[in-house]
Amino acid sequence: MIVLEDLSFRYPGSSFGMAFPSLRIERGAKVAVIGPSGAGKTTLLKLIAGILKPDAGSVRVEDTPVSTLSEGERRNFRISRIGFIFQELELLDYLNVFDNILHPYRINRVLKLDRQVREKARELAEQTGLADKLRRMPRELSQGERQRAAVCRALLTEPGLMLADEATGNLDPANKLRVIELLIGAAERRHATLLAVTHDHELLPLFDRVIDIRQAR
Amino acid sequence: MRHDFYLAWRYLRHHRTRTLILILCLSLIASLPLCLHRVLDAGEYWMTKRAEATPLLIGARGSAVDLTLGALYFAEGEVPAISMREADRVAATGWADPLPVYARFRVRGLPLVGVTLDYFDFRKLNPAQGELPALLGDCVLGADAAERLSLGPGDTLASASGNAFDLAGTYPLKLHVTGVLAKSHAPDDQAVFVDLQTAWVIDGLGHGHAEAQAAASAPDAPFGPATVRRADAGLLTYTEITPENLSSFHFHGDPATYPISAIIALPHDVRSATLLRGRYLDDSAGTAIVRPLEVTRGLLQNIFRVGALFDGILVLVGGAALVLFSLVFALSLRLRQREIETIYLLGCARLTVARLLLAEILLIVLLSGAVCAAVLYASRPFASELARFFILS
Questions:
Q1: Which domain range does residue A101 map to?
Q2: pLDDT tens by residue, A129-176
Q3: Of residues B274 and B252, which shows the higher confidence score?
Q4: Is B204 part of a structural domain of the chain?
Q5: What is the CATH number of the domain that holds A208?
Q6: Interface probe, candidates A75, A80, A90, A111, chain B, greatest B C-beta count within 10 A
Q7: Contact residues on chain B for A66, CB-CB shorter than 8 A
Q8: ipTM of this complex prediction, to 2 decimal places
Q9: Which helix (H) or strand (E) holds B219?
Q10: How many domains does chain A have?
Q11: Count of domains in chain B?
Q12: CA B140, CA B159: separation in Å to the nearest integer?
């Protein structure tokens, strides 16, 4: 469960502040976040993930009071409990697909990379149609394949919360649908919560709930 | 840490051209001064060892360095000759044993050195194959010379003609290789040794030829018909000394006037050495005596001074290169800002990012070190050769 209470945030040096009303999202819910550009959709996800710290209010994910954690604790929480599929989180060009999927395990000691994890990475690649492309470099993949690899990377830690920010932004309709179905399917299988920012209104019927950030402000 | 190095390795491998350039630059900066020192050390050892083993050297007055380099290390460049009489004078003092050395000629780029058999005893040179030269026209090869010429006992080797424009006709002499010396790690390894008399034959001071033929009788001779013997350009001069023509070889003039490059003087004791040195104090005399160790040390000091200057320049260049590398690295960090942001967002600590970058630097330094070590290792067999080349050329 995600609980936001009287959340407000202002970027340093900016006069533009954002306030989010209290919000409760049940575990396992698949929620679409919509709203105009600049409304604070990405900021909301970053506050939930602990990337940003709110000026006021609180964020709680399950039993973790994210907004009161130290930076190190938020980092460990992020890498072990949250799956990110952000557009800006590109695959690293010097790692092949397999190493990109395993990447979170190589950059934080909280996660232990072992044979089971590698096997799980292969399974995820199999499920997302990337099994034969694990040794390929990102530049050798299509946009859709890269996004699917990023999804695998996000799912590998079996997160209880998946945050997707414009995960389908640059994709063609077929790939959009495939990626969203992939995320929803993964969330259902793990009983994970999915919070996805999207501009594609045709995808909204696939979600349990839609939060319009404009309404929320 | 294992993962840091793995990721760093993948990054460096992906940008292999950039990495290779960095590694080559770093290893070059590190290996140049090290190689230079290795060469200088090898040169110092090689030269000092030789000089220490040679107590005194007598030669024409002039450059002590040229005399020492020519007579001890058989460096190229002709040393003014002295006469064989000087060796007799040294022997007559009873203070030292003289070992005459005549190192004027070269054969296929290698020094051809005329010595007496005592020289081989003095330098502890023993044949690894065959035997020492016993007859006129025989030669024995140093270990490296034999390898370079691909010759062994039983082969022949033609000496170079002293002067192509020598109208008197100093012909190349076909030398018989009687042996190959065991490796001594000294300049003797690169030399071709002949007996002193063979060197003089090559110098044109001795020769062998066929009997001059009797010419037709001269009927109009003032005192009646006479038989004359003609020894003109048609006279056959031997270019190889064989058992058949050995007896025809002869020398003209007083052997005491024959040239030698230097005399290695082996004093019987310190007092004898001092007395002998005193004999050569007269500046107006045509000969001088030197202590090779002093001359060599003086020469090495100059070389090391140049080496130190080179070191200083390399430190400056290295410093400038390191500043440049730092700048390149800082710029590459700006280019990688997006990548760094990505891994930070994924949950990587800033310290881990720094560790990843440090691992990259460490790998580059390690690889540069490995290349540097390989260059140093590969240069090891050539250090002595290079020292010889740079110091003696």
A1: 2-216
A2: 888 989 999 889 888 888 888 888 888 888 888 998 887 777 778 778
A3: B274
A4: yes
A5: 3.40.50.300
A6: A75
A7: none
A8: 0.79
A9: none
A10: 1
A11: 2
A12: 13
